[in-house]
What we know:
3 helices; 0% strand; 75% helix; 95 residues
Amino acid sequence: MIQQATFLFISGAEIAFILFIAIMIFGADKLPEIARGLGQGMRTLKDATNDIKQEITKTAENSGIDTSITTDVKKELDKVKDDLNEFTGSVRRKF
């Protein structure tokens, strides 16, 4: 059994086909501009998400709500994830 690396359940051949179609539709000179615009859009979305998180945290702290529980939960989840990775690492076959 051979495992192939997939990105979002899309194989390398499918990604190459999608890129080929994109080049055919938009042209090679427009693709960097489109990718730059997508990158800027993703950065704007990430910044907006971080701003919302900070605002919620600040409001919760001003209201006297204990926000340390989120860090405790994150630490516990990270420990469980590490334990699971450690367990599956010994079980997983490497080809």
